[in-house]
Amino acid sequence: MSISHSSSDSSSNSDLAPVDEVHQPPPGCENLAFLRSLMSDPAETATEAIQAYIISNHDGHMSEYLAERDKRLKFITGFAGSAGTAVVTDKAALMWTDPRYFIQAKKELRPEWTLMKMGVLGVPNEAQWLCANLPEDSFVGADPKTIPYTLWVSMKLELEKFKINLIPVTRNLVDLVWSRDRPKAPLGMITTLPKEYSGMLSSEKVQAVRSKMKENGVDLLVVTALDDIAWLLNLRGSDICYNPVFFAFVVLSNRKVHLFIDEKKIDLAVRNHFNKEDLPISLHPYDNIYLFIKRAVESETGGISKVWLPSSTNFWIYNSIPSEKRFCECSPIALMKAIKNEVEAQGMKNAHIKDGIALCQYFHWLENEIKSGTVKEIEAAHKLETFRRLDDSYVGPSFETISASGPNAAIAHYTPNPSSNRTLSVDEIYLCDTGAQFKDGTTDVTRTMHFGNPDYFQRECFTRVFKGLAHLTTCKFPTKIKGNTLDVLARKYLWDVGLDYGHGTGHGIGSFLNVHEGPMGISWRPYPDDPGLQENMFLSNEPGFYSEGEFGIRIENIVQITPAATPHNFQDRGFLTFSTVTMCPIQTKMLVLDMLTEHELEFLNSYHAVVHDTLGPILKKNKLNDVYEWLKRETAPVERLSSTSAK
């Protein structure tokens, strides 16, 4: 099949103002001051002078991980975390983030910025603060291409209650401030993913999506999430670090697949891939998505009655479609992607076995080398990378390894850098949260270890975290139950003594895709698009505890949802449970064994037996005898010292 080009794409979109004009701040002017000067100039905002400007931490696809040129929040505030929103007025500069990043934000925010701790009692959200601090008839501006329509609509309604106007500013003002050395758009080449890894042809996936469109009376589906596009087309890219995705939009009709992309990324191999998978593609320039949709819905001959807009769609696209033609629901691709087919599921298991071999080599090496007092956090992360590279199917990390020693481990999303790079010590806890991309799957694992003599409180906290992990893993639950209903199982044993952790318990994970994948998850808050937990979904299970300035603990496994054996089946709902696919020992010396119940001990010993029996033969075959002896010791069965059963 050939790849066709739309003849209408030669037109430029006059509704979009250029964002790459050279705007330089006056000599000596700070970024924040220059931003405020742009806010007060209607010629720059292309609307009204605005009294407040909202800066999101998203690109036009609502990606969690960003290309360097899209890290606007980091550029303007100094904060490098993945979650945050800034608000700037003529006198205030505030940034909101969630509990995962409180410690990090305090370290990274520039002095002129105020940290707003989301979820803390008495701290208003962005809309509440604006309503309390702006007069009536004020204008609040934001880039409509970097905010999901769901958030825009809810914020607009909140502001309108106080007669404050939220208006689109299509020229991103941070881009204008940043124009001198802002990185260029990435042009990573695209690779194909054959059926031996994907399990389905792209044409089969498109047909399944079209069936969902037909069920819902929809004529067009707008696909903006980059991992949805990569999964649908059986392609992978390298435009964003750690995420094998590429910048593109897809508009799917009943007859055509419209791909909006920089055509320089489409080489002969990709064209042949579409032919081989029997998928005709109409190519369009990347930026023409906005004009294309506008023309499609305005055409009197096109017959477009409904356009499917997933919740990740940016407000600019949403606002270009008349309200009567919008169909706003979770993307059908997101659910198909979340429920792994048999090939993907087996690939995920294989990937975790390969990663387990590398992890065993790493922790064996670290146990020996840490005694020298010369191993630093960054060096340790690099050493793990060398072990992973020994596997030919290894592609790269799935995120930057969190290699954290002592107080750095208390920063949930810590990233070592030259100024924070601690030397690992036998006297401190070491937390390693790391993940890999293999051609057949994605991994994410956290292990917390102490190579000396941990104190009792550290061991107690570790044990309570482990108990939560064990009970969540072994629970049984009805099909399609929402993930937030299970979250308490992981927290209970911390809550019992007044402890907790500030992040979610579990996230979905992609198949050689994004390490964080929706639409489901396990957290104290409901996921807005959670379809309920279903067989062959893969999620993380990662409770933790963090003592600021002292230590941090997290244990993380990836689990597969599998059928559960139960004596009854209430209302024929079908019951499910979790099966662990991560293959790496949990350090038993950190456990207070007398705190464990028989159930918890059985879970631990059974898990370690599987890890030993799975990895042991491979280590011995590869003549890694010293590593095997380490594995054998670390997976040896344990029992309580006392005969009294823990509660």
Automatic annotation (TrEMBL):
Family: Belongs to the peptidase M24B family.
Start and end residues of each stretch annotated as Disordered: 1-23
SUPFAM superfamilies: Creatinase/aminopeptidase, Creatinase/prolidase N-terminal domain
The keyword S-adenosyl-L-methionine belongs to this UniProt entry's keyword annotation: no
Pfam families (alphabetical): Creatinase_N, Creatinase_N_2, Peptidase_M24, Peptidase_M24_C
Cellular component per GO, a single term: cytoplasm
Listed InterPro entries: Creatin/AminoP/Spt16_N, Creatinase/aminopeptidase-like, Creatinase_N, Pept_M24, Pept_M24B, Peptidase_M24_C, Peptidase_M24B_aminopep-P_CS, X-Pro_aminopeptidase_P
Protein's name in the database: Uncharacterized protein
Domain annotation Peptidase M24: ranges: 347-562
Domain of life: Eukaryota
Cofactor names: Mn(2+)
Biased composition (Low complexity): 1-14
PANTHER family: XAA-PRO AMINOPEPTIDASE 1 (PTHR43763), XAA-PRO AMINOPEPTIDASE APEPP (PTHR43763:SF20)
GO molecular function terms listed in the Swiss-Prot or TrEMBL record: metal ion binding; metalloaminopeptidase activity
Keyword annotations: Hydrolase, Manganese, Metal-binding
Residue ranges of domain Creatinase N-terminal in the record: 49-170
Domain Peptidase M24 C-terminal: 574-638
